[in-house]
Design brief:
It contains 19 helices and twelve strands. The strands form four sheets. The protein has a five-stranded mixed β-sheet, sandwiched between helices. It starts with 12 loop residues before the first helix and ends with a helix. The chain is an alpha+beta fold. The relative contact order is 0.17.
């Protein structure tokens, strides 16, 4: 039995931190080859982390959720999402908040959001110009931001709607590269020296967003009979077992968390999906044939059930992790996992990247093969793009729905091509991993006209 942290990387902790910030995927690939499925990295100022790429160990972790804390392992995100975010909670507090947040993201509620997602996609893509290259990730960000603002925040017009979109975009762009992301990893950089300092700018933008959200919450409270189908209204109406509602601070921080969890991540995965689909004519042809087979009377939820479209999304999520590892687990009491002894306080970090690229589970793992998800069903410890155990992403069903509907809507209406044949690598952006350069593509032809010539969501009830 091993009684110490396994396979410690021997380079200085400061160097490991710089490597982790610069390229966490290459970091894992390098030390995974050197040490195998389990190794310990030491990041200067942050501590030691046991990175795990073994599904059997990960399954034990997922099945013993009560033996780990997770929220206190996510403190790097606190300056962005606030102290009242579900991501930072543990124990009863986490369980209570999760129950309050869950209903708007499942069941019949998804049908309410589906048509709006399609209409938003049509409205934004109708502005594309033929033979004019554009960045796929930026285009998908416009769509995903509009979905967040309309479906989650419940805003579709007015000054606050415009302000919120601008401030959110500018705020996220402040950590859009590995260098600018380093502010999240070095505490000494997190000092507000005034409006012109980097951290000062971030704080002021964050406060502006909080003020806009608070103004919206106050207005909703004054209009108690307003029952529009959006997630904010549902959260404001939710009550726990004691009849208590979420506080304004909780609502505000959870809305910002949803922005980070559902905006940049979805846009990134969509960009990667187009990158692969447009390289593979066979994949594109299969998708178009499957979508066309539904006929003119199909609904958005019919599209969401298409098996090959689902497999394309699953394979994209496998190959391109949006975050380099899932939420760390902190051992609460000394315990043994797979013949390894871990003391209390040990931080275990399951790696979706290492598992998703295992050749014994995914043969030819570096090839884009959606068919693998039609031929086999993977266990929760073999495939976990949205995390696992009691910390699986609450919004995973909405994220998958948005991915499918955006892809189907665009591919059925436009002929697209990559703007160049350059290979695209994964690059850090804040706490996430995105395609370097954003994937440049071009619309070469409109296959059919969209259903409206002005914003559909304003013309049709949703």
């Amino acid at each position: 039995m091993v009684s110490k942290l396994p396979n410690r990387i021997t380079s200085p902790p400061w160097r490991q931190l710089i490597q982790w910030i610069a390229d966490p995927i290459a970091f894992q690939a390098r030390y995974g080859r050197q040490y195998g499925n389990l190794f310990t990295m030491r990041l200067a100022g942050l501590g030691s982390f046991v990175v795990i790429g073994d599904p059997k160990i990960i399954q034990e972790i997922f099945s013993q959720s009560s033996k780990f804390d997770v929220g206190r392992g996510n403190l790097l995100a606190k300056p962005l999402i606030g102290q009242n975010s579900l991501i930072l909670m543990d124990g009863d507090h986490h369980q209570r908040e999760r129950k309050l947040l869950m209903p708007p993201f499942h069941g019949e509620k998804l049908q309410t959001y589906a048509q709006r997602i399609c209409l938003i996609t049509e409205q934004i893509t109708s502005q594309w110009q033929a033979n004019q290259p554009f960045v796929a990730r930026a285009a998908m960000q416009k769509i995903s931001l509009e979905v967040i603002v309309q479906v989650v925040f419940g805003l579709s017009e007015g000054e606050r709607y415009q302000q919120l979109k601008t401030e959110l975009t500018d705020w996220l762009n402040m950590i859009d590269s590995p260098l600018r992301s380093s502010v999240l990893f070095f505490k000494f950089l997190q000092h507000d020296w005034g409006a012109w300092s980097p951290w000062g700018k971030m704080n002021r933008r964050k406060q502006c967003i909080h003020d806009l959200l608070q103004a919206e919450i106050d207005e909703r409270k004054a209009q108690r009979n307003k029952k529009d189908a959006n997630i904010l209204n549902l959260l404001m109406a939710a009550r726990d077992e004691n009849g208590q509602a979420m506080t304004d601070e909780e609502l505000r921080d959870e809305l910002v968390t949803m922005l980070f969890a559902g905006h940049e991540t979805t846009a990134t995965i969509l960009a990667w999906a187009f990158y692969q689909i447009l390289q593979r004519l066979d994949v594109c042809d299969k998708l178009l044939h499957e979508i066309a087979s539904l006929g003119a009377m199909s609904t958005p939820m019919d599209i969401a059930q298409l098996p090959y479209l689902t497999a394309v999304c699953q394979e994209t999520l496998r190959m391109y992790p949006v975050i380099p590892v899932i939420f760390p687990r902190i051992v609460k009491s000394p315990m043994t996992i797979a013949d390894y002894w871990f003391d209390a306080g040990t931080i275990l970090m399951p790696s979706n990247y290492l598992v998703h690229y295992r050749e014994d589970i995914y043969p030819n793992a570096r090839q884009f093969k959606p068919e693998r998800f039609l031929d086999r069903q993977y266990s929760p410890s073999e495939y976990f793009p949205f995390g696992g155990g009691n910390r699986r992403c609450l919004g995973y069903a909405l994220a998958l729905l948005e991915m499918k509907l955006v892809l189907a809507t665009i591919l059925s209406q436009y002929q697209l091509a990559l703007a160049d044949d350059k290979s695209v690598k994964m690059q850090r952006r804040g706490l996430t991993i995105t395609p370097s350069g954003g994937v440049r593509m071009v619309m070469t032809e409109k296959l059919r006209k969209s259903s409206t010539t002005e914003p559909s969501y304003k013309k049709q009830p949703v």
